[in-house]
Specification:
Structural class: mainly alpha
Radius of gyration: 14 Å
Strand content: 5-15%
Order of helices and strands: EHEH
Strand order of the largest sheet: 1-2
Shape: elongated
Protein name: Sugar ABC transporter substrate-binding protein
InterPro entries: Peripla_BP_I
Largest sheet: 2 strands, antiparallel
Amino acid sequence: MAQNPYDMGYISIEIALKVIKGEDVKRNIDTGVDIISKDNAKLKLDFLRELLK
């Protein structure tokens, strides 16, 4: 299992924009987790490498 820093950052910005606009937001936000296995590890690694380009 791994937390997803990309989703955490993306959702944080979405929530920050809502706060700036005066909208109500939840105090606790679930950004989820990723389940990493042998079957999907390469796909996840490729996704993260693409983000760093």
